[in-house]
């Protein structure tokens, strides 16, 4: 009987850990892929200040980014597709534009909505998260668009394994930047 009552708490704790890692990765990618706007320098992610899952499946991330460029940057849309074991799993979308002020450090709120394609996908992800942390067989694809000064940009990163994605784009170990 106690185990039955404890099970939802354990599930939430596992979700919180996995989604903090993914949300932190998305926050880093927002900073990293703003580079795709033809800016002379890539904005850098300094830290993830807070991650909230209280309105799950919506995720709210507060992150501090540094924009070294001479123009403001505005990210207007971002969509991240996830696959687990080569099967479509979920979609993360940016809910509100993100703005970085030129030549300054900015604390930004990044609101993401998560949509699992089915209840069984959510359960598959939960099981994988409970077993491996960030699943070893997770693939990711990202499309972003926005503006740098008056120039519009759109960038698509083709589907690839999460570990390859992290290595190719220099995503740091999230434990060093998460709260």
Polypeptide structure, described:
It contains 3 helices and 8 strands; from the N terminus they run H-E-E-E-E-E-E-H-E-E-H. The chain has 179 residues and is α+β, with helices and mostly antiparallel strands. The radius of gyration is 17 Å and the shape is globular. It starts with a helix and ends in an 11-residue tail after the last helix.
* Most strands sheet: 8 strands, antiparallel
**SSE series:** HEEEEEEHEEH
Mean pLDDT: 76
Q: How many runs of DSSP E, i.e. beta strands? A: 8
The proportion of strand residues reads: 35-45%
Helix content: 25-40%
Q: What is the rounded distance between the termini?
A: 34 Å
Number of helices: 3
Task: Fill in the keyword field for this structure.
8-stranded antiparallel beta sheet; disordered N terminus; alpha+beta; globular; 30% helix; 43% strand; disordered C terminus; 3 helices; 179 residues
Quick recap of the structure?
With 179 residues, this protein is α+β, with helices and mostly antiparallel strands. It has helices at residues 2-33, 119-132, 162-168; strands at residues 44-52, 58-67, 73-84, 87-94, 98-100, 104-116, 138-148, 151-161. The chain has 3 helices and 8 strands, in the order H-E-E-E-E-E-E-H-E-E-H.
Describe the SSE topology.
Layout (H helix, E strand, L loop, with lengths): L1 H32 L10 E9 L5 E10 L5 E12 L2 E8 L3 E3 L3 E13 L2 H14 L5 E11 L2 E11 H7 L11
Antiparallel strand pairs: 1-2, 2-6, 3-4, 3-5, 3-7, 4-6, 7-8
């Amino acid at each position: 009987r106690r185990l039955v009552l404890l099970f939802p708490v354990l599930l939430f704790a596992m979700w919180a850990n996995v989604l903090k890692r993914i949300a932190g990765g998305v926050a880093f990618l927002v900073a990293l892929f703003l580079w795709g706007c033809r800016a002379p320098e890539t904005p850098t992610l300094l830290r993830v200040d807070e991650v909230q899952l209280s309105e799950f499946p919506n995720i709210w991330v507060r992150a501090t980014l540094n924009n070294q460029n001479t123009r403001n940057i505005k990210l207007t849309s971002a969509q991240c597709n996830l696959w687990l074991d080569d099967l479509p799993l979920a979609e993360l979308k940016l809910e509100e534009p993100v703005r970085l002020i030129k030549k300054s450090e900015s604390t930004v709120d990044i609101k993401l909505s998560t949509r699992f394609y089915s209840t069984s996908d959510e359960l598959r992800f939960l099981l994988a998260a409970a077993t491996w942390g960030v699943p070893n067989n997770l693939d990711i694809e990202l499309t972003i668009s926005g503006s740098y000064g008056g120039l519009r940009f759109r960038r698509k990163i083709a589907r690839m394994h999460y570990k390859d994605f992290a290595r190719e784009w220099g995503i740091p170990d999230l434990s060093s930047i998460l709260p």
